[in-house]
């Protein structure tokens, strides 16, 4: 009984899949064209902001490291 219903379902699904396969392959091969959306984006200000934050964090970490070195020198004296 299972084999009969499975073969009936396969008989319906297989031709539909065969008809849709070329369209799906073409859509997957070309991909969407997002050039109009991405051509007007300028990441210059974002890069500047990220580098500024990274610079500030490096100054903070260097100050902490320097304070630890000075405190260790004071403790050992």
Structure report:
Keywords: Membrane, Signal, Transmembrane, Transmembrane helix. Residues 1-27 form the signal peptide. This is Phage-related membrane protein. The protein has one domain (2-76). The chain is built from three helices and no strands. It has helices spanning 2-30, 35-38, 44-76.
Secondary-structure topology with pairs:
Layout: H1 2-30, H2 35-38, H3 44-76
Task: Give a quick summary of the entry.
With 77 residues, this protein is mostly helical.
Q: What is the H-and-E element order?
A: HHH
Mean pLDDT across every amino acid position: 81
Low-confidence stretches: none
Major sheet: none
Number of helices: 3
Number of strands: 0
- State the helical fraction: over 70%
Compute the CA-based radius of gyration. Answer: 32 Å
DSSP strand content:
under 5%
Number of domains as seen in the coordinates: 1
Shape: elongated
Structural class: mainly alpha
Gap from first CA to last CA: 90 Å
């Amino acid at each position: 009984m299972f084999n009969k219903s499975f073969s009936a379902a396969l008989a319906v699904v297989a031709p539909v899949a065969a008809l849709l396969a070329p369209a799906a392959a073409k859509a997957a091969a070309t991909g969407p064209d997002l050039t109009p959306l991405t051509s007007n984006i300028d990441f210059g200000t974002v890069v500047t902001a990220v580098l500024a934050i990274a610079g500030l964090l490096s100054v903070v970490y260097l100050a902490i490291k320097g304070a630890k070195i000075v405190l260790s020198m004071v403790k050992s004296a």
